[in-house]
Amino acid sequence: MALTIETRTGKPVYAGNIKIVPFARSVRWQFPKVPAGFTWNRAVAVLAVYPDGREEVIPVRDSTRRIEVTLFGLAALWVVFSLLFSRQGYPERRRKDGR
After folding, report:
1. Residues 6+ apart with CB under 8 A from 87
2. What is the per-residue pLDDT across 67-97, written as a single tens digit (0 to 9) for each?
3. CB–CB of 19/28 below 8 Å?
4. Where are the domains of the chain?
């Protein structure tokens, strides 16, 4: 399996006198000898270049991704605790015939 992580710049865009350059990160997971894999792209930051030469890097915060990761983590914890506590701490159930 080949895992490739790249950060690339996009084409500059001008907003008035300000030059804006986007940065994106791609994560690719390629399977050997199989023409298939997974690719995930996301914006990570933008570079703003002002007319006076000043540069500012503005990170792109993905709140939806943070919420998804938090919910996935809580679901995983719920499954782990459910498995742990369903096997311990409960008296064994008796059959209806008393055994």
Report:
1. none
2. 999 999 999 999 998 888 876 555 555 556 6
3. no
4. 2-87
How far, in Å, CA of 65 to CA of 87, rounded? 34
* Residue found by looking up tokens 């300000």 in the block: 18
Q: What residue has token string 């990761």?
A: 69
At which residue do the structure tokens 């399977």 appear?
A: 31
Give Rg (Cα) of the chain. Answer: 25
Rounded-to-integer distance, Cα 6 and Cα 21, Å: 16
Tokens 């894999």, residue located? 37
Whose structure tokens read 């742990």? 84
Read off the pTM.
Answer: 0.61
Q: Angle 33-39-42 (CA atoms, 0-180°, nearest 5)?
A: 160
